[in-house]
């Protein structure tokens, strides 16, 4: 068997496409895999196969706020494998999952005291959608089957998440597999009204009234839930207009529709608060989470629900399973152990406060690029930002790809989707690193032209 130290050639293997990669332009990667092959990571930096040290501008994929190679996480993984490496959580339980659920419930908005574990954001979203359907059915409102998502939303790649999602490229190939009864709100991004806004735009609150239109069209008695990301992350950091989330909450409450906040990116400090729900002062009925909860080291996702939802499920015969849903690895002991360390470190190092304190630094650094050639927009909130480039004449995404490649050469691992560069740096970044990140980006954009 080939191994990394022996006769295994990662470059030749990458060139062949043996590893069919997720969300990847495979033929671009295969043509030049070396600069894109990561070999190690420490703190806020990755090392590539060609020896380049690159700053991790998106905390992996929004999931490593503590940086890489944290010694306490490494210790916890080893100790947990030695103590309890796997525990079936169907009809059984264990201390790690119990205590992590308690801890997450304690951080969640008041009255949200029940946590269901999954292994990814996609699973968390599909779980949330099932909870919503089950809840209404148990309430005698099984005709509430519709789900309302939002244009440009990203809710993972399960059939449910894909259906409520609103990114064309993720939908068109699988159109035949869409969940029935899904409709979408319009997104809130209109550059002519909000380009170069710092924080929440003042324009766009009225887009929440789309929900009223959908209620008028479908009737509330057919609608189970509305699912939105408080900040639309994957599509390139679209910040909710002032009052928008509040208005969605109002309309949902008025019509008995559940409000789901997909906090897979925003959960666990990215907004300088445990959840975006607290940052914006809007309490949903269901929160999904994943990513940062385990600092990306062991996959974990989950769903937090209100006491009312949980109580509704706890009916029927005593011996019956109330929610026929779950994953072999729901509440995995390793993920739970890592989750505890992550929350310990976030607490002991005051990382939510740190994220909040870094917010104006990132904001100033990002907006300092205003006026540079080919920049269409800059936006930010919490420890996130996006720099949107004008598409090149050669086509959408061409300039973005060139910026990504030049970024690697100049020491930045950039997250580019189309022509939008999204930023979600680690909470452990220094102020200087965030300033340097944007100074380097300036050079990168100038070099690409
Ligand atoms: C808001 C949101 N929901 C769901 C997901 C899917 O998460 P995963 O890739 O872990 O399935 C993502 C991933 O970026 C996300 O940003």
Which labels suit this protein?
Aspartate Aminotransferase, domain 1, Aspartate Aminotransferase, domain 2, 2 domains, seven-stranded mixed beta sheet, four-stranded mixed beta sheet, PyrdxlP-dep_Trfase_small, aminotransferase, Beta alanine--pyruvate transaminase, transferase
Describe the structure.
With 449 residues, the chain is of the alpha/beta class. It has 2 domains: 32-62 and 350-448, Aspartate Aminotransferase, domain 1 (Alpha-Beta Complex), CATH 3.90.1150.10; 74-348, 3-Layer(aba) Sandwich (Aspartate Aminotransferase, domain 2), CATH 3.40.640. It is 38% helix and 15% strand. It has 17 helices and 15 strands. The longest helix has 18 residues, at 121-138. The protein is globular and about 65 Å long. The protein starts with 9 loop residues before the first helix and ends with a helix. The mean pLDDT is 97. Pyridoxal-5'-phosphate is lined by residues 120-122, 125, 154-156, 229, 233-234, 262, 264-265, 290.
CATH class category label of the largest domain: Alpha Beta
The CATH topology annotation of the largest domain reads as Aspartate Aminotransferase, domain 2
Provide the CATH superfamily of the largest domain. Answer: Type I PLP-dependent aspartate aminotransferase-like (Major domain)
Mind telling me which CATH architecture of the largest domain this is? 3-Layer(aba) Sandwich
Tell me what portion of residues adopts beta-strand conformation.
15-25%
Helix and strand composition category: alpha/beta
- Specify the overall morphology: globular
Q: Write down the overall mean pLDDT.
A: 97
What separation lies between the terminal Cα atoms? 46 Å
Uncertain stretches of 5 or more adjacent residues: none
Ligand roster: pyridoxal-5'-phosphate
User: What portion of residues is helical?
Assistant: 25-40%
What Rg do the Cα atoms give?
22 Å
Number of strands: 15
Q: Which strand order do you get reading across the main beta sheet?
A: 4-10-9-8-7-5-6
Number of helical regions: 17
The largest β sheet comes out as: 7 strands, mixed
Number of domains: 2
């Amino acid at each position: 068997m080939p191994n990394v130290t022996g006769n295994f050639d990662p470059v030749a293997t990458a060139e062949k496409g043996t590893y069919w990669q997720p969300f990847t332009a495979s033929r671009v990667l295969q043509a030049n895999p070396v600069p894109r092959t990561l070999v190690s990571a420490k703190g806020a930096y990755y090392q590539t196969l060609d020896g380049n040290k690159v700053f991790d501008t998106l905390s992996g994929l929004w999931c490593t706020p503590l940086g890489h190679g944290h010694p306490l996480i490494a210790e916890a993984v080893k100790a947990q494998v030695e103590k309890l490496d796997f525990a079936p959580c169907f009809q059984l339980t264990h201390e790690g999952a119990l205590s992590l659920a308690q801890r997450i419930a304690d951080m969640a908005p008041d009255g949200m005291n029940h946590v269901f574990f999954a292994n990814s954001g996609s699973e968390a979203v599909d779980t949330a959608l099932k909870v919503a359907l089950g809840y209404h059915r148990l309430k005698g409102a099984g005709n509430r089957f519709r789900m309302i998502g939002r244009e440009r939303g990203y809710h993972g790649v399960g059939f449910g998440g894909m259906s409520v999602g609103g990114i064309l490229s993720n939908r068109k190939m699988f159109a035949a597999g869409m969940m029935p009864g899904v409709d979408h709100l319009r997104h809130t991004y209109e550059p002519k009204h909000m380009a170069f806004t710092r924080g929440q735009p003042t324009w766009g609150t009225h887009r929440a009234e789309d929900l009223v239109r959908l209620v008028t069209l479908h009737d509330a008695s057919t609608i189970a839930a509305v699912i939105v990301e408080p900040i639309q992350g994957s599509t390139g950091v679209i910040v909710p207009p002032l009052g928008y989330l509040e208005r969605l909450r109002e309309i949902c409450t008025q019509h008995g529709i559940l409000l789901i906040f997909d906090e897979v990116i925003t959960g666990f400090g990215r907004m300088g608060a445990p959840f975006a729900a607290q940052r914006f002062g809007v309490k949903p009925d269901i929160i999904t989470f994943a990513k940062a909860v385990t600092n990306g080291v062991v996959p974990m996702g989950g769903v937090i629900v209100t006491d009312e939802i949980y109580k509704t499920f706890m009916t029927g015969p005593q011996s019956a399973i109330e929610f026929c849903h779950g994953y072999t690895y729901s509440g995995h002991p390793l993920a739970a152990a890592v989750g505890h360390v992550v929350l310990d470190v976030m607490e002991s190092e005051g990382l939510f406060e740190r994220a909040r304190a870094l917010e104006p630094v990132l904001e100033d650094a990002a907006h300092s690029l205003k006026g540079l050639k080919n920049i269409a927009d800059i936006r930010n909130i919490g420890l996130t930002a996006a720099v949107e480039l004008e598409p090149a004449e050669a086509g959408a995404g061409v300039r973005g790809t060139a910026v990504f490649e030049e970024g690697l050469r100049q020491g930045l691992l950039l997250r580019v989707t189309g022509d939008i560069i999204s930023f979600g740096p680690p909470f452990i970044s220094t102020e200087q690193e965030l300033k340097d990140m944007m100074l380097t980006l300036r050079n990168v954009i100038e070099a690409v032209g």
